[in-house]
Amino acid sequence: MMSHTGYVIASYGIAAFTVAGLILWVLADGRGRRRELKALEDAGIRRRSASTAAGEAQ
Amino acid sequence: MSEQSLAIRKFSDLANPTRFIGLAERLLPWFSGLTALLFAVGLYLCFTTEGDYQQGETVRIMYVHVPAAWLSMMCYTVMALSALGTLVWRHPLADVSARAAAPIGACFTFLALVTGSLWGKPMWGAWWVWDARLTSVFVLFLMYLGLIALNRAMDDPGKAAKVSAILILVGFVNIPIIKFSVEWWNTLHQPASVLRLDGPAIDPEFLRPLLVMALAFTMLFLPCTSRPCATKSGAGG
Hints:
heterodimer, A: about 60 residues, mainly alpha, about 90% helix, about 0% strand, B: about 240 residues, Four Helix Bundle (Hemerythrin (Met), subunit A), 8 helices, about 80% helix, globular
């Protein structure tokens, strides 16, 4: 049964590596998109929905 | 305005991308914390429960393989609902949600395939067999990769959204095939032992860590999709 421990360790190792990679990718992608958004907002471009949300909140 | 229409109005307000971004940013830390907590409890249960009398230690592979397989199908179902939202209501959040879920679904499908292979070798004596369950999950993985490539290959986001939505809905036929493949065909893969009409056929000792890990994986899906949704919908809405 000892030889099977390797399969368990490999499974959990690959799962941890994949989940960590996914989280890092989501964070990096989010940072990139935020930079793009900031550049657009600095250029004076706003979301159409921003005015609707602000208008209804008043 | 009646209470019912107020409730509907409140719910439909979430379709406003700006409001969605605000809500997602408020909820993200809570989702992330809950996910980490569930993983901690799930992993503790995974390694403290007894091994199976027949499978020994390899039964622990089930606690990552089964939730990953469930999530691979759930991601695609979410994408199919989003595809309907794109084609019927042409809502920008629907396309963003489908695009955000595709790489996450691909990751879960990859995990299900690899951990299944690592479980198959000691139990079946083979890393891989072309039976209906394994083949249909492999097709799902290829579909995820194809959809990611398609979205990146098309310059016009509107056109890409429409083409992707049609492809997602056509590909949805694979989900019931995956689920029922073990009943429709003679497969090396075992039939369902948890999601059955007559209740789970698995011992509660193994079911407990499995359900906690499934919940942890589902919670992981929420921040992983809502974060890209919040950032990607920013410029579009």
